Amino acid sequence: MAASVVFRARAVTKIYEMGEVRVQALRGIDLELYAGELVVLLGPSGSGKSTLLNILGGLDTATGGQVLYHDRDLTRADDRELTEYRRHHVGFVFQFYNLIPSLTARENVAIVTEIAHDPLPPADALALVGLGERLDHFPAQLSGGEQQRVAIARAVAKRPAVLLCDEPTGALDSETGVVVLDALERVNRELRTTTAIITHNVAQADIAERIVHLRDGLITRIEQNDHRRPARELAW
């Protein structure tokens, strides 16, 4: 049975006006993302990857075109509706971890579970990313890779339908980055969370079911990856 469409973007444009400067970040994007898939958005800096991800996640709005999340039109949503959408449907992972230094790993995750409808217990979310033994450690007691995995646990603890990751290994060395990608693979596999990962690193695209190539605000091609490799086999 074919997977259902989670996102449908049609002719999406984004223009930033900065004084007299006009920057067209997206130039007409058509894209579907499917339930349970792991997709990589691949392209150089300035290609529009983060702008597209932010529009899908309700952190930004399109200048033109339409973005549907199931049957919800995000392009017509007001601020209140977008806040509700982000809170209950989307998990975010960024390059920097944004953990609260005075809280333990468990407490950092618990912040999210307190506002979720059907959350994972914080200990279960941390176990999912391989940190079951580090529940009561503070961020300063964790490595960069461990802090990023706490951030992933925090993002998935509310059981989001969608996990959007913007350069999640960008601040990490290759060996640590592989561990983080492995955690994202496990979340995708075990929770069946639709997962989109932004990277400019070609090697990382090997973990995806589909690879969306972007350049200059356009999708140049979408590649079905018939030779997926597990994250633990990657090196860059």
Question: Could you characterize what this model shows?
Answer:
The protein is globular, with a radius of gyration of 17 Å. The chain has one domain (38-58, 89-233): Rossmann fold (3-Layer(aba) Sandwich). The strands form 2 sheets. It has a 6-stranded mixed sheet with strand order 6-7-8-3-9-10, with helices on both faces. Strands 2-1-4-5 form a 4-stranded antiparallel sheet, covered by helices on one side. It has helices spanning 49-56, 79-89, 105-113, 122-128, 144-156, 174-191, and strands at residues 5-18, 21-34, 38-42, 64-69, 72-73, 90-93, 162-166, 194-199, 210-215, 218-224. It is an alpha/beta fold. The protein is 28% helix and 29% strand. Strand 4 (64-69) and strand 5 (72-73) form a beta hairpin. Helix 3 runs parallel beside helix 5 (144-156) and helix 4 packs across helix 5 (144-156). The longest helix has 18 residues, at 174-191.
Name some characteristics of this structure:
single chain, 236 residues, alpha/beta, Rossmann fold, 6-stranded mixed beta sheet, 4-stranded antiparallel beta sheet, 6 helices
Short structural description:
The protein is an alpha/beta fold. The protein has six helices and ten strands, in the order βββαββαβαααβαβββ.
Strand content: 25-35%
Terminal Cα span: 36 Å
Overall pLDDT level: 95
Q: Helix proportion of residues, in percent?
A: 25-40%
Please provide the ordered H/E string of secondary-structure elements.
Answer: EEEHEEHEHHHEHEEE
For the secondary structure, the number of strands is 10
Report low-confidence residues grouped into runs of 5 or more.
Answer: none
CATH class: Alpha Beta
